[in-house]
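As a warm-up, study this chain.
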Amino acid sequence: MKAQRGSITRSVEQPDRSIRFYLLYGPDDSGSRGLANKLLKALDAEKLALTGAAVKADPALLAAEAGAISLFGGARLIWVDPAGDDIVEAVEGLLEAPAVESLVVAIGGALRKTSALVRLAESHGAALSYASYALEGRDADRMVIELGRGEGLQMDPSVASAVAAACDANQSIVAHELAKFALYLGASADRPKELTREVVDLLGAESGEGDMMRLGDLALAGQANKLFEELDRVALSNSEAIPVIRALQRRLIQLTGLRAQIDQGKGVDAVMTSMGKALFWKDKALMQRLLSGWTSERLAAMLERSSALEKAIFFSDEPPVAALEEELVTIARAAQRRG
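Now compare it with the structure written out below.
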């Protein structure tokens, strides 16, 4: 079945047990992942990640995992990412199985409407498909307000608009930013706090550009010597540690979405071309190096590390710059070993 924009949120927040396969695709990769995370939360499930390549290599794997009972008895959501037409055989086996214990969600990226996987998901009663497109205007503002409510944040439309603009309406970046605002304010679902423009300006995504972004880029590129020189040049203060981490996180989120396209079979050059004017010409060599060197799994692990470091800095009495510099050097050395 094909879901519409007006019903997709309800479909993932209140999942119908007759649906066993969800295909979330479209050019807004962050929107697809956001919906998949809503489904994961609604099911109160453990995420079992499978790559499209693994499913292709063993088409029976998907139905087998979906039919298996969890070792600890809890719910599982089988998450296939990235997914393309090469998993059609496996999805057919899943849909033909007599029963399943776990639901399956697939992140399809920019699949064409003529895709065999899209056609299968749209035509089968036990499957649901939805194409995500970048939100604009009031739709983007509503998305920010809705995500903020889940973090215990209350805001007026002008603040939501500022957050959406700073994050280019990318739901993954918005979610990360709102989680940081909530942490700073001590907000939660049962203790809501107001998010003001002053807090957004102080801690927001745009506060980590320039030198802040360059430090993370040098680390990810494995350019340890240049990183040391840059750290000496900028002489970070303790108050600048968090903006540097956030600039690094923005780059990691950007790379994660682009790398997913490569995992689906696109070449690095084609992915970079698809960025259009969003990629500054001076950054082309850097982006090519990063996209060629970092896998999706390594990027996800690095994003988790950066989030853990940020939380540790918030609650530690240790000098934050020392912890940040140590992490940047660790990243640079890992990148060198990979190269």
